[in-house]
């Protein structure tokens, strides 16, 4: 099958359909990971106890290693937003972080 590819660093409007054989040669692990997630039967229900017992919030003083790549670094206000969202999650609150149009 062909794959709809969202390219890192490009907006969704630049997604493109790519030949399945070519994508499988270069990104087979990504395909396998996707298939595994897609076929998983372990989606937690709302009654799942671990989701009700959230860990205590500990503010992040610096950017976690799992965020960003190739020297990309969060700005101070982005780290503040990440902390706010993590704090809201730890309290069991739903939230949306948004800014005014054009502020990035």
UniProtKB/TrEMBL annotation:
Chief location category: nucleus
Molecular function (Gene Ontology), one example: ATP-dependent chromatin remodeler activity
Signal peptide: none
Highest taxon, organism lineage: Eukaryota
InterPro entries registered for this protein in UniProt: Chromo-like_dom_sf (IPR016197), Chromo/chromo_shadow_dom (IPR000953), Chromo_domain (IPR023780), Chromodomain_CS (IPR023779), P-loop_NTPase (IPR027417), SNF2-like_sf (IPR038718), SNF2_N (IPR000330)
UniProt entry keywords in alphabetical sequence: ATP-binding, Nucleotide-binding, Nucleus, Transcription, Transcription regulation
Known catalytic reactions: ATP + H2O = ADP + phosphate + H(+)
Domain Chromo: 1-46
Pfam families, sorted: Chromo, SNF2-rel_dom
Cell compartment(s), UniProt: Nucleus
GO cellular component, one term: chromatin
Name of this chain's protein: Chromodomain helicase DNA binding protein 1
UniProt organism field: Nothobranchius rachovii (bluefin notho)
